[in-house]
Amino acid sequence: MTSFVNTSNKPNGPRTAVSSVSAQDVPGRWSQLGASRPAMVIVPSSEDEIIAAIQLATTKNWRVIPVGGGHSPFVPINEKSVLLDMRKFNHVSVGTGSVTIGGGSTAGDVIQACAEKQCYTLTPNSNAVGMVGFLLGGGSSSFNGIHGLAAEHIMEVRMITADGLILHLSSSSTGAERELFSAIRGAGHGLGVITSLTMPTFSISVLNMPNDCVSVRRITFPLAALDHATMAFLKLQERVTGRSKSRLLSSIMFLRAPPGLSQVGEPLIYLTAAYYGSASDAERCTLELYDPDLLQHSLTASSSTIPLHKMNDGTESLNITGGYKQLGNALLASADLEGIQQGIHAWLRFGDSHPDAKEHTIIFWGTWSTSPMPRSTFLQGSDRTAFLQVLVWYTERNTHEPAREFMEDMLNIGRRNDANNGVAALTFPNNQLLGGKIGEIYSPEAVQRIKRVKALWDSGSLFWSPAIDSL
């Protein structure tokens, strides 16, 4: 269907066609949780069409939701929503020391374009995730320890406001535009439609990796080896310090063995260490994972080198759209054996009670380290050392409430030590829960700043904002 709206402030100004698609053709959303049939889906091919869509939504009292990768299950979609499917804004241009990214580009688009120029920028760990959404929610990448959070590196932004203004923002912006630019770098959801942004690039060679490849050590264990696997993970976190710690990403993941493995359906433990540096440093930092006493409890063990631009390929199975998925996380001051043990038993009980969620529900503890940068008002977590991420993936609608309860239980289990030590609960913005607690994401000062920026640039709340609409 096609709607026509006036894109001029004058009653008799020019009219621009807004091309839209049927609401049944909603862009593939990673999770259908919180999503119902929208009022309209629009696929703009120009900034004029975006402005026209904004004006149409204003007259109809609809909410505008830009969509890139569709991987933000915390954003509600309903009959009052207009989805701006930004698929036609997927250009990526790599220059000298920077990359300009279209508002509809995915991480895979950007990674490939940079790889062709022997450079990289800060991207998520899934090729299907939209780059703009990733950056607006803080931007946690594999390079947190080396470069800091990705959102703090945004150099320039081109965006369209609720009033249809086209702004070009950067660190040289002043006044209200400078405050808007600051908010975008960490709390940017719901402030406008970003048509492009610019990020720095870094030469792959500076990482000094063997053949520009990441060194990866991976061991799988049966559930019976839980204590051995967990202690190896915790020792890695405790022993590695300094520069090496910033380049080492270690994790312990619990999932059901997928089809194709002899243990299909059985709970497995994956202990992984990825090192973004020299081969010798990689081996030195992961000595625990070569210990014969540990390996005798394992099912498999392998060491490999993976090209930097291929690191996300292992997560492709998690990019399937549709179904019901809840994603939550907790940034932790510490992880401990007892907490991980309790979490595993809760995971097993939930899967046994809900067969539709058993196969794909995953829990994951990982190291958390962010390089010192000028402190953002909006992004927290520089004092945390670990994180817990939970993916609950189910097929039956009536599993929603039990899944929500399990998610909250898991996050509380992970935070048990922190709570006992008076450490506040903290959630990273991009993995917040639908209808989550905004006080776990932004400080009271940050929420007040977001509200001021929102009131100035979107006083009618045309765009959905987690910092405003989740209060």
UniProtKB/TrEMBL annotation:
The record places domain FAD-binding PCMH-type at 34-204
The lineage's top-level taxon is Eukaryota
A Gene Ontology molecular-function term?
oxidoreductase activity
Which region ranges are annotated with the description Disordered?
A: 1-23
Q: Does the keyword Flavoprotein apply?
A: yes
Q: Which InterPro entries match?
A: FAD-bd_PCMH, FAD-bd_PCMH-like_sf, FAD-bd_PCMH_sub1, FAD-bd_PCMH_sub2, FAD-linked_Oxidoreductase, Oxid_FAD_bind_N, Oxy_OxRdtase_FAD_BS
Q: Which PROSITE patterns match?
A: FAD_PCMH, OX2_COVAL_FAD
Is this entry keyworded Signal? no
| Alphabetical keyword list | FAD, Flavoprotein, Oxidoreductase
Q: Which family, according to UniProt?
A: Belongs to the oxygen-dependent FAD-linked oxidoreductase family.
Instruction: Kindly give the PANTHER family that the UniProt entry links to this protein.
Output: BINDING OXIDOREDUCTASE, PUTATIVE (AFU_ORTHOLOGUE AFUA_1G17690)-RELATED (PTHR42973), FAD-BINDING PCMH-TYPE DOMAIN-CONTAINING PROTEIN (PTHR42973:SF7)
Indicate what this protein is called per its UniProt record. Answer: FAD-binding PCMH-type domain-containing protein
Taxonomic source organism: Penicillium cataractarum
